[in-house]
Amino acid sequence: MKAERTRSQERILKLLKSLNKAISAQDIYVELRNRNQSVGLATVYRALEALKLEGVVQVRTLASGESLYSSVQQDKHHLTCLQCGRSIAINQCPVHDLETQLHQAHQFKIFYHTLEFFGLCNQCQMAQATGVGAE
Fold first, then answer.
1. Thinking of the domain 1-73, which architecture would CATH place it in?
2. Where are the domains of the chain?
3. Is 81 annotated as a binding residue?
4. Which residues are listed for Fe cation binding in this entry (predicted)?
5. Which run of H or E residues covers position 97?
6. Which sign does the torsion angle of CA 70, 49, 55, 81 carry?
7. Measuring CA to CA, which residue among 35, 39, 116, 23 is closest to residue 71?
8. How many CB atoms lie within 10 A of CB 122?
9. Residue 93 annotated in ligand binding
10. Is 88 or 11 the better-scoring residue by pLDDT?
11. Looking at the predicted structure, is the pLDDT value of residue 1 above 50?
């Protein structure tokens, strides 16, 4: 039997769905305070972990180590520049068939997947070639 969500979990999930973008735990904490729905930062982290294990929130860890949370709406795929941190969403998904195969072969319940490529964006490549710092 699935446990009932706490009020904090419901608030966080509602916030993530309304924002429709990935956001850090600290930003969730600040946004809830701005909306007069204060919860402690530790509570935000606990709620995010529970929602992640329920399969309704996904986490994406950037090259900097920062974790961004979003509601699970569709699989996310990105090209991320290691120099400037710019992240470009890509819409193609070469792993949907693999996901189905893994689910069938291992009876593994997959909530979502992410696919991320790390490298240098065009601007950073050009800056590197000319020896000028990129922004």
1. Orthogonal Bundle (1.10)
2. 1-73, 75-135
3. yes
4. 113
5. helix 96-106
6. positive
7. 23
8. 10
9. no
10. 11
11. no
